[in-house]
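hey so i finally got around to running the thing on that chain from the lab meeting. sorry it took forever, my laptop kept dying and i had to restart like 3 times. anyway pasting the input first so we r on the same page abt which one it is
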Amino acid sequence: MVFMDIIAEIRRRHLVSKESISSIARDLKLSRPTVRKHLRSQSEPAYRRQKQPTPMLGTFQATLESWLQTERLLPKAQRRTARRLFEGLQAEGYRGAYDSVQRFVQRWKAAKPGPALTQAYVPLAFAPGEVCQFDWSHEHVELNGVMQTVKVAHFRLAFSRQMFVVAYPRETQEMVFDAHNRAFAFFGGVPQRMVYDNLKAVVDTIFTGKERLFNRRFMVLANHYLFEPVACTPASGWEKGQVENQVGNVREWLFTPLARFASFEALNTWLATRCRELAERKHPLTPERSIAACFIDERPALRPITAPFDGYVEHMLRVSSTCLVVLDRNRYSVPAEFAGRAVSLRCTAAEIRVVADGAMIAQHARRFGRDQLICDPWHYLPILERKPGALRNGVPFREWELPLAIQLVRDHILKQPKGDRAFVELLMMAREVGLEPLQVACELVLDGNVVTASVVMNEMRRLLAPTQPMALSVPDMLKLQREPLADCARYDHLRGASRVLH
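ok and heres what got predicted. didnt touch it at all, straight out
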């Protein structure tokens, strides 16, 4: 390819230095017609590719053009590429080359450009404490040595640009509630408005324009914190552009390279620390100040938090005959007296609470994954009164991590006649007073030579017996001046009197 510097050299050597065309052509290894052509030109040469004939495609052009015309009206993700169109033509009998199809598609699209207009936006300004934007993103982390895709909740105050991010295993509504509690605690207050996508946890129905039917339980959250929820127009991410940009930046700042932590708690603690550190960057509108400094100005405009929101999602379930309720394919135990009854299961991001008759009857740490069994052995203790044999093979009791002294005593007692029932009696007593007295009693019994349930029971009763009252100090005025003496001869006198009466 001949560039403008070569053309300039040719013209300079011939027109200024009066060098011959043959000499220039020989020196630059060009043909003399090429040298003459560039002597006549003063602009950069343009090379035009000749239109190549497509004899094999000719009979299929109408089919290809009809496909392009039909797919032009579809979303971009649903349109076929030139390669897929080529494969479709092959199924119709086309035996030509792929290049012919590719060039035809390019020319057709160039002749019919879509409505690709440059978007124009209006600069926005926000008052302190006025708006906070919310969004989700999916990130890859390593937790306890296992690669996982976590869901990250993003918050961003529009005035100060202060951000807050927190990670969860899912995007369910209880995670949204917990994320709001954490974000408002991090910010130290609540903004006037919260801007969202039309996610299911927030919006139930989308009407024309900005009108929305918000989720009933989500509105309880909004009423608790007294903020106004605002839902964006569908496919209009620019309405919350700050948090949209934050998603890409956070992926680069916090999750590249791969983040590795032992648990979600450790990950979220680190994310909160990094949010504070990143706030030391310059504010985009006032570069002379940091985001942290602007956040200090915005914090007084946030509404104070009176109490955190109890962000649970409620499910009505029936307890199985094995005293279990099922949530997300994981089973949680319930006290045995509620077997077969309907209960309310209130799940949050971190725990499961089972409620019946207005009172909480069970509480478990929430588990994620599938087919896990979470049992509290105390829930099954009433069943052991009727079926003490279940103590040996019952799953809740086999996995029960008791103190070592209690385990040793249990192993001794279970080897004795009717040991199952005897140890159940010890557990029934421990349910009323706690495991600590039972543990101390077992330690005392193990120091001796006899290990039986009755000895352990006796030790527990001694430990739980009320303490003797302290000796009272009697004032001198109440003390006896002359204490009476015991005289057993008085009884002999009474015996003599009885003989007289007979």
